[in-house]
Amino acid sequence: MKFKVKAYVMNSSEQTILLADEDSLAIGVKENDRVSVTGYRSAIAVVTHAKDIVPRGTVIMTKDLADRIGVGNDGEVDIKYAHAPDSVRFIRKKMDGERLEKEQIEAIVNDILDNRLSKIEVSAWLTALYINGMDIDEIADFTMAMANTGDIVKFSRSPVFDFHSLGGVPGNKITPIVVSIVAAAGFMIPKTSSRAISSACGTSDFVETFCDVELESSKLKAISEDVGGVFSWGGSMNLAPVDDLVIDIEHPLGINPRAQMLASIMSKKVAMGSTHLLVDIPMGRDTKVPTLESAKAYARDLMDLGDRIGMHVECAITYADQPIGTAVGPILEAKECISILEGDKHPASVIEKAVECAGIILEMGGIPNGAVRAKEILDSGEAYKKFMEIVVAQNGRPDLKSSDLVPGEFTQDIIASSSGYVHSIRNKNVVLIAKTAGSPSDKGAGLKIFKKKGQRVEQGDVLMTIYAESEAKLKRAVEMAISNNPFDIEGMLLKRVAGIKSI
Amino acid sequence: MKFKVKAYVMNSSEQTILLADEDSLAIGVKENDRVSVTGYRSAIAVVTHAKDIVPRGTVIMTKDLADRIGVGNDGEVDIKYAHAPDSVRFIRKKMDGERLEKEQIEAIVNDILDNRLSKIEVSAWLTALYINGMDIDEIADFTMAMANTGDIVKFSRSPVFDFHSLGGVPGNKITPIVVSIVAAAGFMIPKTSSRAISSACGTSDFVETFCDVELESSKLKAISEDVGGVFSWGGSMNLAPVDDLVIDIEHPLGINPRAQMLASIMSKKVAMGSTHLLVDIPMGRDTKVPTLESAKAYARDLMDLGDRIGMHVECAITYADQPIGTAVGPILEAKECISILEGDKHPASVIEKAVECAGIILEMGGIPNGAVRAKEILDSGEAYKKFMEIVVAQNGRPDLKSSDLVPGEFTQDIIASSSGYVHSIRNKNVVLIAKTAGSPSDKGAGLKIFKKKGQRVEQGDVLMTIYAESEAKLKRAVEMAISNNPFDIEGMLLKRVAGIKSI
After folding, report:
1. CATH class in words for B161-234+272-393
2. Of the partner residues A49, A127, A197, the one whose CB lies closest to the CB of residue B127
């Protein structure tokens, strides 16, 4: 059936067109059905009925879709019912608890990438994956299918080391330290990182306060091969691009099916040509991995999956029951990270974690007592020298100093209202406060923590300082800190019990 | 954060707003996240990023949403991140295979009704329901929760009989006959029907060719109480309105989770105040219920569910391996239905099914040998008299005759190319042809079948006649009939086998 076009400006992963109810009936399509829309070219869209709003014979579509099929406003298109792609059958197969073949997994992945599956269908896919799961061979096929949706980087050097943290713990600024140590030892580690998704500050969020992180593939390759390491933003590369589309659907559901999580991580490593990978699994309350048992299960899965796809994978289960170090927020984390490379011995939790992780990677490269060697490289200033080489290669200032980085000018100390010991620090509330202060989009926003778990606090001591770039955001962050206090301080005085035990 | 409004005209079950990427980041929301949008009033919407299209500080929303919150174009609204409602947790609980409590089911149902759950979430819900299911007590809670989303009709007469067909078989025009017989026997049967969803012609689609089907609740009540029966369109009542929203999501997935199917049917019966219900379960290839085993399982479920919610439910498993009667399409089905009430003895399959179903209902009402009595009521003309009373009460012509109804003027006979016996008739292809001819929106479109299963066909015999209201649609329907031939004709000559059996 022929229609006159009205294009409106909208950009969405799902192409929706609006039709009069009578026209939908005439074509034989219902709400959320798929149609082919043909102008100069054809594309697939999903129908929404527009009660009494769209005149008969008219279709309203996005500008994006109109451009894609090569028609302008008042142009003419032909609209027809389009069968669901085969991948919908494969999704149903997974809903029915069956195993999927390699080609079926590829069909689903490619149809998500090409917008041939609607939000409704992708949601059903993720839900089925969450409930019915995949075996490790299916996950290997899934990983390779996702990797093949984007570019595959090929380096002239081998091995290619990589490092990944499952995340979920605030203040985890160890990546530039690990990369600098490993590269200083002579290995290549082309590290790509992410920006914050639900966290307060991702690695790329703080690295971009002192150098470029959006590196083109050719530049990333050149720096990695010449200098040995990069701190790049993965989003500037075209790595397993289907993953972003899936995350957009996973996120509102609050699920991360095991198969999807594993394939998501590993597909990007495959795309980066990684041969040796260390995965940091932060374990603790409010992280993705709350118990040692679940951490071990993830480690097993990652190593099994590595075996299947020919990648050497090791895992480090790390302690994540409180923030790593003392700073949270882009500039504050950058300062803390760089000051350690400059020689600062504090905070020990950051140094220890970075050295342990770098040490495991060195051992994967054949260096015995990796952690000892990593500490030497850090203490000797070799890591700092390598760090500055990378910074300069990524257009950072050659005279970069941690002291040059200045956080937000609006600050407020949060004071202990009673004395005692810090029993715990809730990561979740730390993240909430930092985000309310403006992190990560306001680079100077965040917080510094002065008392960590187990430390003695006297009434009136400063527990943390909140930083913001505006008075209003500071005020809101302080309110958030009061309503969502991250510090659990107990007197630690044990109750005296009379000398008679009940039976 | 404050925004200037640009409203665009669009109507959708899901309210989407468009924001600049930087503004989304500043509010701390991602694609598909939920926000509260506050103008004069507040409403919940889902965020879509609009890359480079929406200027910072501007929000694009539908006219519908703008009206709902009481702002016009260039008005100002405040937008904030909104937490997912509790129902999202309950959906996850079902994803984790757990049982849901009554209040949790109610929360999900009410949040779907009020558009507080996005398409993504409703899809996850239906997928979880499909995979993990519900026990019969959960389904009873689900049924009542769905019924309570709309009006509950209260009649002054009791009992309230009802009749429902699971559908899936074309040409099933028995409803007006069953209702007329039951009402003629002195019982009240306020029957609501649907229009076609995926079928070629729903009961309301053909009934509206000879009388009104869109009856207001008060009129439906009055006619039912006075005359004893109605043939009303359920959609004109506000019965379990949440069901339509769910169907829009189920449909593209091609699933109908057992719990949803049962609650969907029964919630509408609860809303209609039904005390006694007969469910017709058409069993056969291409129906919802392909095997006797699955038909029995449905029957058991429906009766168990009836027990839980205090409704007397009986089921009739009927034969549905070919169309019922000979006519498919609104006017053609109306003619066949009315001619039987007028006294026509043909086609026997329609008469038998209508009499059997009416007979079971009469027995539920205490009349022994219900089918015999039902046949008497039909043969004596009492059913016809009652039928005309109902038609006139629904504004039909008092001199209505089946011969007055004229199908589409463009017709084409389909001829047998070889002789043999009709081995089977594929319902699916019959539906495809009728829909291609224009049914149900073109009232005169459809087809008449002259040879049914088991009948002898000679080469050159007319197998069916296709009717359409335009030359073009007729042509397409004929092409469809050729490429999707519903008739499977076999010579039925058994192969002669030599007198030696293999061991």
Report:
1. alpha beta
2. A127
